[in-house]
Amino acid sequence: MAETVTCAHCGMVVDEPPMTWISSVERGRTLYYCDTCARDHLRAIEARLDSSWW
């Protein structure tokens, strides 16, 4: 049985993250971001800013 994955920013839920989603390890937790949120916050992600900042 597949686990659902939730975007840590907007809350979108999918059965399996598409290849366009990104994952990030923050404070020991793996977080997933959908392609829309990742695209909107690309500079902050590349600068390795904590997601609470953006």
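the 2nd protein, sequnce then structure:
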Amino acid sequence: MPRLSDSMEEGTIIKWLKQPGDQVRSGEPLADIETDKATVTYEADAEGFLQILAREGDTLAIGATIARLLADAESAKRDTNGETPTAASPSPAAPREPAGEAIPTSAAPLPGPGDPARPGSGERLKASPVARRIAGELGIDLATLRGSGPEGRIVKADVVAAADGVTAGTATEGAAAAPVAASGSASGAKGDVTVVELSRTQQLIARRMASAKATIPEFQVTVEVDAEAALELREQLRNHASPLPSVNDLVIKACALALRVHPNVNAAYIDGRFERYGRVNVGVAVAGEGTLVVPTVFDADSKSLVEIAAQTRLLATQVRDGTVGPADLAGGTFTVSNLGMLGVARFTAVINPPQAAILAVGAAAAKAVVLADGTVGVRRVMEMTISADHRIVYGAEAAEFLGTVRKRLEKPALLLL
């Protein structure tokens, strides 16, 4: 299972694009894999005949073996009995033993830290990651099952059979399958309740956001920006720039230039130290179908406003179509989240770890302000709030960063230099 995004921990095989025994050449599409951010087409990085080990729908950790490329087609077509090897499996170059032959003990995966023990034996149960996951979802005690895999290892078929009440060869004598949690809706004091299961992407986002709030000592700083000049520049570009840069594109450019001046904001806190980055890659929060995806505008400080506008539109379209690639989801050094188009005046965003900061941008709304000459006038003003990791960015530097962004937006000709 390849790593297809910075935050990917596991992936799900959605569809194999080749058949067992097919000849595969380097660079050919091999499988569609669902990551924490998108469904990505994985391309082969070597040549050979394909032996598929992970079935469609299987979820595996990064590094687990999903297939092998062998030297001959006949070996690649051999039945793998549906078992999905773990990262401890033999190397991809080694052919799998034919069905029915004993597998050496050295090739059997060691029990993981989450494997339960056999009652009264002190022996750790051997169970595949998929079997453990499904058992947890169905509420089945793995200790009540007898595995049908190599060396008694519990595999997916054993758990599914137990859930269906089939005990021959899978469940221990007299063991009944645990009840499966009811789905659908129920009525009560709160009315009809519909239970909605989270997708893998939503589960991972939930874990990452909870971890960010629990482990990052963040703080917020807010400034008001007079957006009149920026909006006027946008109108001046209307008949001369294609695509027309949005207010968010102006913010991205302003942030990118400010990150050059304030390198601690263009950084991350990893393993007790800072990492300052030489490139300025601004992530843009985009709402997808039931999820939130952050594709990256690379080298935003050196791109023109029109280039940024073209890239953000392309990335937003790819996110909503589910076609965004792994390369576009990696490498971000700072993030901009804008809810201004939804009429939100101010909000705080959760830091996208391990980045040092994220900027929340509100709507540009008409407001009575005191002008430079002391008179009161109506100006379109937007609020921007930075959430910063206090281990890297201190209050004064966060305020100075926002001041630099504000200066660029209030004198937007600086964005064209």
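Helices lie at 73-76, 129-138, 156-163, 200-215, 228-236, 247-261, 305-321, 395-410. The chain has three domains: 10-107, 111-182, 208-416.
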